[in-house]
Amino acid sequence: MDTKALIEKIAVSHEATEEELIAVMESTESDDFLFESADRIRREIYGTDVYIRGLIEFTNYCKNNCLYCGIRRDNRNVERYRLTEEEIYQCCDEGYSLGFRTFVMQGGEDSHYTDEMLCRMVSNIKKKYPDCAVTLSLGERSEESYRRLYESGADRYLLRHETATAEHYAKLHPEEMSFENRMKCLETLKKIGFQTGAGFMVGSPYQTRENLAADLLFIKKLKPEMVGIGPFIPHKDTPFKDCTQGTLRDTLVMVALTRLLHPHALIPSTTALGTIHPQGRELGLKAGANVVMPNLSPTRFRKLYALYDNKICTGDESAQCRKCLEGRVSSAGYKIVTDRGDFRA
Ligand code: SAH
User: Fold this and answer.
1) What digits encode the pLDDT tens for the residues 207-231?
2) Residues 73-92, mean pLDDT to the nearest whole number
3) Has residue 344 been placed in a domain?
4) Spacing, Cα 228 to ligand 1 middle (Å)
5) Looking at the domain assignment, is residue 138 inside a domain?
6) How far is ligand 1, taken at its centre, from the CA of residue 115, in Å?
């Protein structure tokens, strides 16, 4: 079968084998057809709407030591920061007036924020803004903790699986971290009732085509409401500092294939994609993504939340970011909407 026919088959059936996925990844001549197919499916379900999520990167303290990440525990060169509760609420206030109806609280795994504090913040935000969704991205926690957060009003939880292959996971993480636990956390989040986000990096060290196919098949099986996909970008203070970054093309192909296999997914066009190419986020939208997640954190902290080098938008005020995105999204042929942007089943 030629690649176009294969893409067409995947677009219609939303099914593919490992071999078929690898065949699509390996042949570049049908890329445009692939992106157009993904865009067509996205438009059938979500029209031209692009959902915006206000990202509050509230702490860069982390107890983990992921080999790829710039805020890993062993990095002594980062100045660590934490936002106060009050500062977090201010981010939400500003975000709300800019049209954000989802707030994403993301951070390193920082035990300074106890369940009690986190639950209080979630419930205060939900009380003040009942028309908004709260998304958490705080890494691996106990089932008990996830439950309490859910009961306090959190709607969604982002926890990228990073790679669906245990052997590959072990090459990206220190021994003390466990692939099984990450997978178990994702199952637990779904079971509790969170709209759950999984996802992976493209071009991470040691990654093979087979690993990427496994990521896609894992997504197909788990059916997370959200899927975050971005290129791996080296950070100068990590063991992977000399590794090559993921490519634009491979990342776009993964976004598009995710749309084909799991048509209803909410897929962000990531900041990492915008970092490796000036039009990365626009191209991501055209390849099937339908979400953007600009930063709402106070500008003075943004440079400090450096998971990878050269991260974009670290100097802009939130209002500027919002304006800039508006232009980018409309130049790509889509429209930012003021909406919670929930998963459409
Ligand atoms: N501590 C939370 C949030 C992690 S940061 C958690 O464990 O889920 C969000 C995502 O950034 C990670 O899941 C990872 O996929 C991505 N990331 C980290 N370092 C990166 C790098 N060097 N290049 C690209 N993406 C990276």
Assistant:
1) 999 999 999 999 999 999 999 999 9
2) 98
3) no
4) 10
5) yes
6) 22
Q: Could you tell me if the CB of 137 is within 6 A of ligand 1?
A: yes
Distance from C-alpha of 108 to C-alpha of 60, rounded to nearest angstrom: 5
In a domain, 8, yes or no: no
Residue 309's Cβ-count burial label (10 Å; 0-12, 13-18, 19+) is middle
Ligand 1 binding pocket includes 162 (Cβ within 6 Å): yes
> Cα of 321 to ligand 1 centre, how many Å?
21
Decide: 286 in ligand 1 pocket, CB within 6 A: no
User: Per the structure block, which two tokens stand in for 12?
Assistant: 């219609």
For the domain that residue 177 is a member of, what is the CATH number? 3.20.20.70
Q: Which domain holds residue 146?
A: 26-337
Q: What is the DSSP string of 205-227?
A: TT--HHHHHHHHHHHHHH--SEE
> H/E element holding 54?
strand 54-59
Q: Whose CA is nearest to atom 8 of ligand 1?
A: 139
Give a yes or no: residue 21 inside a domain: no
pLDDT of 1 > 90? The answer is no
Q: Which of 80, 160, 250, 277 to mutate to test the pocket of ligand 1 (most atoms within 8 A of CB)?
A: 160
* Residue 141 CB–ligand 1 contact under 6 Å: no
Instruction: Look up residue 74 and give its amino acid.
Output: D
Q: Is 60 in the pocket of ligand 1 (CB under 6 A)?
A: no
Q: Work out how many domains the chain is built from and give that number.
A: 1
With contact defined as beta carbons under 8 Å apart, do 7 and 30 qualify? yes
CB-ligand 1 contact for 295 (6 Å cutoff): no
Query: Is ligand 1 within 6 A of the CB of residue 201?
Result: yes
Q: 266: exposed, middle or buried (C-beta count within 10 Å: 0-12, 13-18, 19+)?
A: buried
Mean pLDDT of 175-187: 98
Instruction: Tell me the pTM.
Output: 0.98
pLDDT tens by residue, 246-304: 999 999 999 999 999 999 999 999 999 999 999 999 999 999 999 999 999 999 999 99
Rounded to 5°, the CA angle 115-140-310 comes to: 105
What is the number of the ligand 1 atom nearest to the C-alpha of 272?
Answer: 24
